Amino acid sequence: MRENDVRNLFEPFALDEEKKEELWTQISNRGEQTEAEDGSLIVSKQRRLRGWHRVVAAAVIVLLLWGAGTAVNAATGGNLVKQIRGWFRQAADPQTEQDIVEEAVTIGSKTGEIYAPDIMARNERYLVFGNLRGILVYDLQKDRLLGSIDTQKIGCAYFGTDRTHTRLLLRDKDIYVFNESEGTLKGKLHQFRIREKEPSDGQSEEKIVTIGTVTVKNEVADLFRQWKKQEKTRDTFDTFAEDNAYTDTMGYLWRGDPARYSRNSYPWKSADGKKTLNFLTIQDGIYRLYECNRKDKKLAVHRLCLTVEERKSRPLPEFRYTGKDRALAAIISYQQEQYKEKEGQGCWIPDFIIFKRVWEGDQYLVFGYFGGIGYRKIGNILQCVDGSNDPACFHLKKTADGYQVQKVDYTGDGAFYGKGIRKFTRNYPELYKKYFHFDNNKKKKNHLRYLQMYVKNNDLDVKYYMISEDPVKIFK
After folding, report:
1. Which of 16, 129, 412, 468 is the most buried (most CB within 10 A)?
2. Helix (H, G, I), strand (E, B) or coil at 61
3. Spatial separation of the C-alpha atoms in residues 37 and 402, rounded to whole Å
4. Residue-wise pLDDT tens digits, 59-95
5. How is the chain split into domains, by residue range?
6. Is 137 helix (H, G, I), strand (E, B) or coil?
7. pTM check: above 0.90
8. Element at 214 (helix H, strand E)
9. pLDDT tens-digit profile of 173-223?
């Protein structure tokens, strides 16, 4: 069901067009659209609500209240609409804990991840690790997954990033999650707790509950100092793997399917004073915990009850250009098909910058970079999985309803890169330098507009995109 379908539900009710539009606009909170220089849509800061199940729910609410709805809304200073929006937000989390667990466990199984998740913390009872989708808490004594923390919901999804990093401190049954950048706490410090829940089948069970944010400055500072002290003792897997004492024990990791392992090891001191370095591996779809005793050269390996399985997720919709630039539409369609033929891994989003457009006889030439980035969806983040950066000149022909691509002049690799560009810009020599010195910020802004168009057109519950740096908001 789309927006017009929901709007049609309102037709039988006695409201003039102006009042219908006013109430609908307030509820849907739609942003204005303007045409960009390259023909793409610019979406304003005001962002519409995502997920049409929420729109349908709101439509039902409005229908129930319709007789007096507008009057009540006016009399309450707009509180009726605010309340409806509140109901929207309460129902706005389409992913269950099971979804989070499945995504976190299977992440990277088919997308070329180099490392297994780093261990973020552990003690006698619990093992905590995580990735871009969330944090998992494993009960080592009962040998089962205890639960998960949706770190995206609290803005702590900085895993494998450049400047900002999501960190964790485990103290007994309290878990503290926060972001750190260059040795400084960034943002809030969130507290969770492992707590007993109602017994099931006579057995005591535990769950993870949210306590809230730590606000006392001295307490925040003390917890951050504890984490920094703990962080200084970290080591790498390579230091351990190069020790000949473990060659035989580790041998199977170098045979069979490739093994992924934690990039960093986690140091831990047990209650009896034993000091170990700990890390995870994933091989043949199986998670294992390694405990390396550096003193007596003993190695303990624990197979965890976590298995990477092929997860049948709905494929992401294709990018659909909805701007007015027909020449750009033809180029995007052409490049999208090229991406499919190369068996790209994700949903393709244009990454264009145009330098010049010119008519040569009956051909319309468009010069620029016509690359694209493939994304996968992880929770509310679109993460880059592949991409291209294609300098080219497109030859287009005018048709009755737009343009058709007749020919594309691409350039070669290596030594042929500059030669190819010089060849297709020979009639426009001033363009040659632009392929090597252009405004990359403008290119990024163009890509962001295409991302906004993609998320908006498909009503996706996506807030960030991530290429090689920290996650970036799609809608400011």
Report:
1. 129
2. helix
3. 18
4. 444 444 444 444 445 555 555 444 444 444 333 344 6
5. 3-90, 98-307, 326-473
6. strand
7. no
8. none
9. 999 999 999 999 999 999 999 998 766 555 667 889 999 999 999 999 999
